[in-house]
Design a protein that fits this description.
single chain, 137 residues, Immunoglobulin-like, six-stranded mixed beta sheet
Length: 137
């Protein structure tokens, strides 16, 4: 992880129906990237309004944005959002800046039933915040 000297904040807002219906009870896993792979920072659950509590995350100091070079003035995190009956969503490269509360919207799509036993197919959707591409898995 980058040089960490400060903290930023994140609230995840989970919904369905193009943001019209909040989803309570969704599990939100917050991970950060390390040279050896991803590490879980915390796991949260959305409330009745579809939001997680505000969490504090390590972020580089604001002063780094004024330093020339290739130093990122923010940390990036990966979010994995799961709820029974919905496709799992993975958001990568979610930026967190020091001293800023970021609100990350996540829209979940319902799974279609494919047999009479109410068994849902397993699949997921990966979204990279750094690009406009969505990868289906």
């Amino acid at each position: 992880m980058e040089q960490i000297q400060d903290v930023g904040y994140l609230i995840v807002n989970v919904s369905t129906a193009r943001g019209a219906i909040p989803l309570s009870g969704a599990a939100v896993t917050v991970m950060y990237e390390e040279p050896a792979g991803s590490s879980i920072f915390t796991v949260l659950t959305t409330d009745m309004s579809g939001k997680t509590s505000k969490i504090e995350l390590p972020a580089p100091a604001r002063a780094l944005s004024e330093v020339p070079g290739n130093i990122k003035p923010y940390s990036t995190y990966t979010l994995q959002i799961e709820k029974d009956g919905y496709y799992t969503v993975t958001n990568t490269n979610v930026p967190v800046f020091a001293g800023v509360t970021s609100i990350q919207p996540v829209e979940m799509l319902p799974l279609a039933e494919y047999n009479s036993d109410n068994v849902y197919p397993r699949s997921g959707l990966e979204i990279s915040e750094g690009s406009n591409q969505a990868l289906s898995g």
